């Protein structure tokens, strides 16, 4: 298993990044939030897992080991492959996903594109006892560290729209989903904006 990769980012594609390791460029498939945190020409370290199929070897990368473990856990459920597992992590933060599985929160789970009620029920049945949920922290309202999104177009907005288009959504719905989130949460950071927009697009499909 390739547990992690570290090196300069050579390219950032719509659904993957190319990281140079020992003179070899490795294509690493990531969530939009992870890709949004990378910059071409700078060094990156990603937790990874290699999915082996008869016809391919595919490397998936994550911002941290926690996301990677959930990615692997999700695939123990029948019908959940790497792409759907990656989409799940793209939409739901790790603790939100664990809480939804623990509580049997089907409404949250069906926000994931490609997951209907039956699939959500199967996820709960098979994973409820395999996740550990931390006590809900008591925080002051608005404690999150925001990335300011200015009125109209902004680098963060444009980057998130581009990532959504890379996932297969058309430009207009992607822009509308991002703008809807920004209207409700103008100070949302990039990863929060991506997850919320994905969730909105999932509900509209």
Automatic annotation (TrEMBL):
Chief place where the protein resides: cytoplasm
Gene3D superfamilies: 5' to 3' exonuclease, C-terminal subdomain (1.10.150.20), DNA helicase RuvA subunit, C-terminal domain (1.10.8.10), Nucleic acid-binding proteins (2.40.50.140)
Region (Domain III): 151-205
GO aspect biological process, one term: DNA repair
SUPFAM superfamilies, per database record: DNA helicase RuvA subunit, C-terminal domain (SSF46929), Nucleic acid-binding proteins (SSF50249), RuvA domain 2-like (SSF47781)
Pfam families according to UniProt: HHH_5 (PF14520), RuvA_C (PF07499), RuvA_N (PF01330)
GO cellular component: cytoplasm; Holliday junction helicase complex; Holliday junction resolvase complex
Keywords, alphabetical: ATP-binding, Cytoplasm, DNA damage, DNA recombination, DNA repair, DNA-binding, Helicase, Hydrolase, Nucleotide-binding
Subcellular localization(s) per the UniProt record: Cytoplasm
All residue ranges annotated as the Helix-hairpin-helix DNA-binding motif class domain in the record: 72-91, 107-126
One example GO MF annotation: ATP binding
Quaternary structure and interacting proteins, as annotated: Homotetramer. Forms an RuvA(8)-RuvB(12)-Holliday junction (HJ) complex. HJ DNA is sandwiched between 2 RuvA tetramers; dsDNA enters through RuvA and exits via RuvB. An RuvB hexamer assembles on each DNA strand where it exits the tetramer. Each RuvB hexamer is contacted by two RuvA subunits (via domain III) on 2 adjacent RuvB subunits; this complex drives branch migration. In the full resolvosome a probable DNA-RuvA(4)-RuvB(12)-RuvC(2) complex forms which resolves the HJ.
Domain notes per entry: Has three domains with a flexible linker between the domains II and III and assumes an 'L' shape. Domain III is highly mobile and contacts RuvB.
HAMAP family hit by this protein: DNA_HJ_migration_RuvA
Entry-linked NCBIfam families: ruvA
Reported function: The RuvA-RuvB-RuvC complex processes Holliday junction (HJ) DNA during genetic recombination and DNA repair, while the RuvA-RuvB complex plays an important role in the rescue of blocked DNA replication forks via replication fork reversal (RFR). RuvA specifically binds to HJ cruciform DNA, conferring on it an open structure. The RuvB hexamer acts as an ATP-dependent pump, pulling dsDNA into and through the RuvAB complex. HJ branch migration allows RuvC to scan DNA until it finds its consensus sequence, where it cleaves and resolves the cruciform DNA.
Family label: Belongs to the RuvA family.
Protein name: Holliday junction branch migration complex subunit RuvA
Species annotation: Pseudonocardia halophobica
Gene, per the UniProt record: ruvA
């Amino acid at each position: 298993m390739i547990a992690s990769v570290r090196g300069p980012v050579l390219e950032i594609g719509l659904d993957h990044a190319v990281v140079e390791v020992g003179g070899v460029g490795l294509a690493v498939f990531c969530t939009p939030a992870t890709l949004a945190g990378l910059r071409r020409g700078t060094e990156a370290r990603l937790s990874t897992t290699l999915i082996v199929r008869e016809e391919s070897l595919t490397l998936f990368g994550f911002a941290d080991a926690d996301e990677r473990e959930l990615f692997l856990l999700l695939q123990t459920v029948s019908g959940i492959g790497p792409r759907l597992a990656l989409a799940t992590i793209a939409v739901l933060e790790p603790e939100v996903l664990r809480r939804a599985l623990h509580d049997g929160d089907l409404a949250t789970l069906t926000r994931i594109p490609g997951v209907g009620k039956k699939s959500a029920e199967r996820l709960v049945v098979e994973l409820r006892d395999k996740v550990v949920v931390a006590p809900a922290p008591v925080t002051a309202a608005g404690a999150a560290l925001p990335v300011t999104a200015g009125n109209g177009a902004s680098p963060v907005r444009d980057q998130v729209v581009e990532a959504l288009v890379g996932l297969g959504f058309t430009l207009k719905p992607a822009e509308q989903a991002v703008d809807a989130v920004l209207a409700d949460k103008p100070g949302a950071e990039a990863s929060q904006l991506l997850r919320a927009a994905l969730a909105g697009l999932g509900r509209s499909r």
